[in-house]
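Q: What structure does this chain adopt?
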Amino acid sequence: MTEFTGFGNQALPFLKALDFHQSREWFNENKSLFVSELETPRGDLVEALTAAFAGKGLPFKGDRKKSVYRIYRDVRFAKDKSPFNKHVSALLTPSGEKREAEGSFFIKIGIEGCFMAVGFYLDDATKLKVFRNSIVTWPDKFRSMTAALKNGKLALETDGALKRTPKEFEAVTEPDLASALKLKHFYVSEKIDPAVITTPKLVDLSVDFAKRAMPLIEWGRPLSSD
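A:
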């Protein structure tokens, strides 16, 4: 198993400097620092997490090269043409394929915050409707899942939720179900203290968080495979 000793002490300062310069020339001149402080540790983290998750029976795995996101931004359709991201990130999935974004573990280390997330990112309208139908058809299962998350000090995130209940579900009046039906994605997240990212403790924190998020995975996996 690859040992993860932490991101470099200059990881966040490097990202701050990169964001200030937003220059390919500056990045190329300082690429060795990016590799030593961020890129190599991130790969080590993916491998360490894959082993740690497997040891705990958690369904997330990845590859140090294929499970990470590029530092370069895709600016083709963006108003902001800054060429570099302000963070590094990785996605571990049940199959190990990054394109399988549903039922996954995501981690992001950046100057705007560090956090972990587990859940289902539902860009497909058909799959989203399956989740919503399940909430209405089997409300007890949904409530049991959210109660288990609460016991683990987690709750479904409401970022990007609709302001109104979808038309086909307007008859639903129970407040908790109506709120859930407004969600576009079903995931939980937790902030990471920046002081932790330079230590091996990040692996244990990730495993603990993933374990507490498993009620969501167990509820949503049968739905995402429909």
